[in-house]
Amino acid sequence: PAEKVTYLLNVVVEPENAGTIAPANGAFDTGATVELNATANTGFAFDRWEGDIVGTTNMVQVVMDANKNVKAIFKAADAAAAPAADAAAPAAPAASGN
């Protein structure tokens, strides 16, 4: 019988400790579809995937047809919320001027 071929999945979280990716690093059979799920830790929000997968949803599927290097990019949740709060303040006077 032919020897079973596996490919390696290498996942990285950036910044470190901002979240987790499931499943973690591992070897998968050729052609296997792996569902990756990125979960943000408290104070962070998932931003995007980089590397051999691109996308902005926290759950993606990758077909293991080669070794894959994937990076989950997280951002500080506070940084995302602060500009929205600041932008809301001047919006009220502008709306009343119409």
Number of domains: 1
Q: Give the biggest sheet.
A: 4 strands, mixed
Global geometry: elongated
* SS summary, helix count: 1
Number of extended strands: 7
Order of strands in the sheet with most strands = 3-1-7-5
Question: What is Rg?
Answer: 19 Å
Q: Which secondary-structure class do the elements indicate?
A: alpha+beta
Low-pLDDT residue intervals, each spanning 5 or more residues: 80-97
Mean pLDDT: 86
Distance between the termini: 76 Å
Strand portion, in percent?
A: over 45%
Q: Helix and strand string, N-terminal first? A: EEEEEEEH
Helix content: 10-25%
Question: What does it look like?
Answer:
- This protein is an alpha+beta fold and 98 residues long.
- The chain has one domain (6-97).
- It contains 1 helix and 7 strands, in the order βββββββα.
- The chain has one helix at 77-97, and strands at 6-14, 19-22, 26-29, 33-40, 44-51, 59-63, 68-76.
- The strands form 2 sheets. A 4-stranded mixed sheet has the order 3-1-7-5. A 3-stranded antiparallel sheet has the order 2-4-6, with no helix packed on it.
- The chain is elongated.
- It starts with 5 loop residues before the first strand and ends with a helix.
- Mean pLDDT is 86; it is low at 80-97.
Give a summary of the structure in a few sentences:
By secondary structure, the protein is of the alpha+beta class. The protein has one helix at residues 77-97; strands at 6-14, 19-22, 26-29, 33-40, 44-51, 59-63, 68-76.
What labels would you give this structure?
alpha+beta, 1 helix, 98 residues, 3-stranded antiparallel β-sheet, disordered C terminus, elongated, 4-stranded mixed β-sheet, 48% strand
